Inverse folding.
């Protein structure tokens, strides 16, 4: 777990990544940006329970770590809306497909039943 008082090396080892960029450097501190990806949960809309669904890759998040001049963490902050990293969504949304099927299929069956009445 990230904590204040850690060194840059300890932070990079814990996160498993080097800093992505430098946000700012002043006389008293340096702020580094680390980019990471959160894990989301996708679930079928009609069966929403606390523990169902599957883990999927979420969006990118910026982690800002402030270091004092002696190289120790003084502040840790994350921001989900700060980064400019955008992912192009090319995957099929299963929730939209299920909704389409559950709405369209009954209407289609009723229509076909009216077109072909029993003899």
């Amino acid at each position: 777990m990230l904590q204040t008082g850690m060194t840059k090396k300890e932070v990079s080892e814990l996160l498993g990544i080097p800093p992505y960029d430098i946000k700012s450097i002043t006389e008293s501190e340096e702020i580094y940006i680390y980019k990471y990806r959160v894990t989301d949960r996708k679930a079928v809309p009609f069966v929403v329970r606390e523990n169902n669904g599957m883990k999927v890759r979420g969006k990118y998040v910026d982690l800002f770590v402030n270091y004092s001049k002696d190289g120790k963490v003084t502040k840790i902050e994350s921001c989900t809306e700060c980064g400019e990293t955008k992912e192009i969504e090319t995957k099929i949304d299963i929730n939209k497909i299920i909704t389409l099927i559950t709405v369209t299929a009954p209407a289609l069956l009723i229509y076909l039943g009216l077109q072909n009445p029993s003899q």
Q: What stands out?
A: The longest helix spans residues 94-115. The first strand starts at residue 21 and ends at 25. Residues 8-87 form one domain. Residues 20 and 34 are 5 Å apart (CA to CA).
